[in-house]
Amino acid sequence: MDIHISRVHFPVTTLGPGKRIGIWLQGCTIHCKGCISMDTWQFNINKVPLNDLKQVLEVWLPQCDGITISGGEPFDQENALFELLEFLNSYKTNILVYSGFSFETLKEKELVQNGFIDVLISEPYNHTETQTKRLLGSDNQQVHFLTPLGKREFATYLEQPLEKELDIHITEETVWLAGIPINGMKEITQAGKDNNVDLSHSQAVTKTK
Ligand code: SF4
Fold it and tell me: Distance (Å, rounded) from C-alpha 206 to C-alpha 150?
């Protein structure tokens, strides 16, 4: 089976407790206004065999404190997501999955009920909402502890105050950020301007749902 991946990285320190493997899936049907990951919307690109991804993950899994799967929209590739989570579950580490679908839409799915996912963050990003909670882009989003492990690992973490924290990765051609920026990309682009750096980014400022 193939899977469409935007990016895979280890360690990520801003999307859950500890040093985590971050997996961003490619493709999203939801198109929230203000999305900061607009580069992950397009479908039918970045296709890799799931077995190749597993080989990459196998190197990191013994060292990681958990896994965060985001996107894109992970549930837009439900079969590949299922196989990926089935593989990851043999490693007994905690797994956080983001989805822009409502919990009402997701709650009957086998993947939400079978214990593969420890913590699910659901609901679309809403740029008109306040942003006061850790791991959430907007306060309408919901955290669901789907297993006792998820509650044990995340409950205290989520009670801590929201902080400005981002992982920054610099390659020869790009700078990319992991984490949930406060106030979208506005503060970051302004900070760049204040230092004579013009930052382009993929936040969806014009497209609507
Ligand atoms: S924030 Fe919304 S539009 Fe952006 S990737 Fe997530 S679900 Fe898709």
Answer: 36
Tell me the CA–centroid distance for residue 125 and ligand 1, in Å. Answer: 7
Q: Is 119:154 a contact under the CB 8 Å cutoff?
A: yes
Within a domain: 104: yes
The Cα 114–Cα 202 span in angstroms is 34
**Protein residues whose CB sits closer than 6 Å to any atom of ligand 1:** 28, 30-32, 35, 37, 40, 71-73, 100, 124-125
Q: Domain count of the chain? A: 1
Distance (angstroms) between ligand 1 centre and the Cα of 143 equals 16
Sign of the alpha-carbon dihedral angle for 152, 93, 112, 38: positive
| Whole-prediction pTM | 0.89
Chain segment 111-156, per-residue pLDDT in tens:
999 999 999 999 999 999 999 999 999 999 999 999 999 999 999 9
* pLDDT tens string 156-202: 999 998 877 777 777 777 777 788 877 766 777 777 777 777 766 66
Which residue has tokens 């039918």?
Answer: 44
Q: Residue 38 CA: which ligand 1 atom is closest?
A: 4
Tell whether 206 is covered by a domain.
no
